[in-house]
Design goal:
The chain has 8 helices and 2 strands; from the N terminus they run αααααββααα. By secondary structure, the protein is mainly alpha-helical. Strand 1 and strand 2 form a beta hairpin.
Length: 197
């Protein structure tokens, strides 16, 4: 299944080697990965596949830990397709960050985000590059931000010509390293209310 990006905001989505721009190269990587997985990733030849498997599992674990009010487990129903999106992206030789974005977009789609997922993609990308007090924002907080962006859009931006939820979500994700979800949701809401007039 290939999900078409809307307005070039959404990350590339490849859910199988059949959808890949370079199908043969993807299939080679997939075969190598599957062979290594069957052996328990034993041996030096499986070092890259073992690392990819660890990266994929870490992303899904962060996605599952990203507990947000109303969405206690953002990846509960989508762990397998999210993992597939990450893995197939890496089979294409893409970077970890790029594949994080692809997997996050997939999680948003499977949560029913629809077109908002395309608008949320740059919000997630921006979060990945930000720091609070010199410390990079943890990936799970950026994943929470994706859910918070959607919630904000539904609450404050329907029918609006501007997207006040991008900066409101940044308020949330910048808050999260030092505060609980409900405190940061209030900060997001306060920002959105102050700027929606």
């Amino acid at each position: 299944m290939t999900v078409s990006p809307r307005e070039s905001k959404a990350p590339e989505q490849v859910m199988s080697c059949e959808d890949a721009p370079d199908e043969k190269s993807c299939e080679r990587e997939e075969t190598k990965y599957e062979r290594c997985a069957a052996s328990g990733f034993a041996g030096g030849r499986c070092r890259g596949s073992r690392a990819l498997d660890g990266d994929q599992r870490a992303f899904v674990a962060d996605c599952r830990r990203a507990g947000v009010a109303g969405w206690p487990d953002p990846c509960a129903k989508s762990a397998e397709p999210v993992g597939d999106a990450y893995r197939y992206c890496r089979f294409l030789g893409r970077s970890k960050l790029r594949c994080d974005r692809s997997a996050m977009y997939t999680a948003c789609i499977y949560r029913g985000g629809g077109h908002i997922c395309s608008d949320a993609a740059p919000v997630y990308r921006a979060c990945q590059g930000r720091s609070v007090n010199g410390t990079k924002i943890a990936r799970r907080f950026c994943i929470e931000g994706d859910v918070q962006y959607r919630n904000c859009r539904h609450a404050y931006s329907i029918g609006s010509t501007s997207d006040l939820c991008r900066p409101a979500t940044a308020v949330y994700t910048d808050c999260r390293p030092g505060a609980e979800v409900h405190v940061c949701e209030k900060a997001r809401d306060d920002y959105a209310k102050a700027h929606s007039r």
